[in-house]
Amino acid sequence: MWFTLNYMSGEQITNSTVETQNLEGELHSLKKHPKKERVDINVLLNKVRLAQKKEKMESTIFFGLIAAVILVTGIIVSI
Predict the structure, then answer these.
(1) How many whole angstroms separate alpha carbon 52 and alpha carbon 44?
(2) pTM of the full predicted structure?
């Protein structure tokens, strides 16, 4: 019984495409990649640095706008 539960046919092992059906009923086939692609650490680090730079710029602009609103409000109130 153990042998029959863990047995897989050759068709299941060698099948490299999977067909899926979306909500509209259309069939799509997805191919599995037989080899794994390597990830370059420098590319990942550059993406993180770019995201941090963008976040820093956004926060600087945000605090600049807040300071401008406070300054303009102070000038209007003092008049």
Answers:
(1) 12
(2) 0.47
Cα distance between residue 66 and residue 72, in whole Å: 10
Sorted by sequence, the CB contacts under 8 Å of residue 31 that are 6+ apart come out as: 16, 17, 18
Q: What is the dihedral of CA 47, 50, 56, 57, to 10 degrees?
A: -140
Find the helix or strand (DSSP H, E) in which 62 lies: helix 41-78
Token pair recorded at residue 72: 């303009």
Instruction: Name the residue range of residue 8's domain.
Output: 2-78
How many domains would you assign to the chain? 1
Model confidence over 38-63: pLDDT tens digits?
889 999 999 999 999 999 999 999 99
